[in-house]
Design the sequence.
């Protein structure tokens, strides 16, 4: 299972209204529940917020990787949001976040979700990649950047 298989084009979102960490997570929870009948937006939101309470998923450099397990999640689900304006995410480095990669995995997920998180972190840790994502001006551009980077990484 690769990131590409769990991140369909319609889940790469451009110019998402930010406001706050809570609003971003609410937005994603509502969005994902509308697209995935087995998921409930409140349940997804409470799991993502619950994970944030353990420690911020803001990994630094304006990037956050909120993630959670869900009993209603049949297979891993990913979403990517480029925020219209950065929000405070209580990130490790204190910088506001504008690139958000969300990952939901089944309750009994094992090493698979750790591998997926690792793939996301590897991609998002590249300064050049972050710069390109921030410079992108459309959903299509964002999608092409992410997809080509995922393919490049999985080819290694």
Sequence:
């Amino acid at each position: 299972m690769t990131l590409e298989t769990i991140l369909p084009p319609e889940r790469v979102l451009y110019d998402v209204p930010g406001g706050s960490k809570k609003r971003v997570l609410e937005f994603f929870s509502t969005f994902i529940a509308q697209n995935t009948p087995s998921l409930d937006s409140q349940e997804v939101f409470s799991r993502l917020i619950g994970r944030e309470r353990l420690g911020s998923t803001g990994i630094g450099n304006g990037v956050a990787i909120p993630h959670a397990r869900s009993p209603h999640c049949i297979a891993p689900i990913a979403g990517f949001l480029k925020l219209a304006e950065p929000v405070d995410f209580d990130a490790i480095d204190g910088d506001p976040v504008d690139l958000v990669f969300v990952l939901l995995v089944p309750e009994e997920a094992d090493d698979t979700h750790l591998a997926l998180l690792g793939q996301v972190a590897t991609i998002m840790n590249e300064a050049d990649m972050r710069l390109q994502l921030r410079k992108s001006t459309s959903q299509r551009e964002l999608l092409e950047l992410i997809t080509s980077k995922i393919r490049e990484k999985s080819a290694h």
In short: The CA atoms of residues 3 and 116 lie 6 Å apart. The first strand starts at residue 12 and ends at 16.
